[in-house]
Amino acid sequence: MYAPFEHFSGLDMRVGRITAIEDFPEARKPAWKLTIDFGQEIGTKRSSAQIKDLYTKEDLLNRLIIGVVNFAPKQIGPFISECLTCGVNDEQGRVTLLSVDRDVPLGSRVY
After folding, report:
1. What count of other Cβ atoms lies within 10 Å of the Cβ of residue 69?
2. pLDDT of 13-67, one tens digit each?
3. Where are the domains of the chain?
4. What is the pTM of this model?
5. Measured at the alpha carbon of residue 76, what is the angle toward residues 88 and 89, in degrees to the nearest 5?
6. Strand partners, 37
7. Do residues 34 and 18 lie in contact, with contact meaning Cβ atoms separated by under 8 Å?
8. What is the rounded distance in angstroms from the CA atom of residue 79 to the CA atom of residue 31?
9. Choices 2.170.270.10, 1.10.510.10, 1.10.760.10, 2.40.50.140: CATH for 11-97
10. Residue 77: how many CA atoms within 13 Å on its side-chain side?
11. What is the DSSP string of 10-70?
12. Distance of CA 19 to the CA centre of its chain
């Protein structure tokens, strides 16, 4: 079964740079609180990401990632996540981040 292209085009997926990482001890599964800069048009957004088993703070700082920036904010415990940090599960169910392999302008749209 095919999904209409409009489903994909309705997602606003952008390139962002992780600028800050905080512990999130209240999370049910190990997670980081991320601050992500999506450039001048979008600005900075915060996200909760369950990626602690593969990524340290040092791994994440200044990393370019892909995020969905047009979802409604979501309450996750005491934290409000303003965007979705995109990733895929590996064989053990750990999340591997989607990223770009070259330096591109922050806020670049994913097509």
Report:
1. 21
2. 999 999 999 999 999 999 999 999 999 999 999 999 999 999 999 999 999 999 9
3. 11-97
4. 0.93
5. 10
6. 17, 44
7. yes
8. 12
9. 2.40.50.140
10. 13
11. TS-EEEEEEEEEEE-TT-SS--EEEEEE-HHHH-EEEEEE--TTT--HHHHTT-EEEEE-S
12. 12
Q: Is the separation of the CB atoms in 81 and 74 below 8 Å?
A: yes
Choose among 81, 70, 67, 73: nearest CA to 31.
81
**Helix, coil or strand: residue 6:** helix
Residue with token string 């079964």 = 1
CA dihedral sign of residues 10, 15, 19, 20 = positive
CA distance 50 to 81: 12
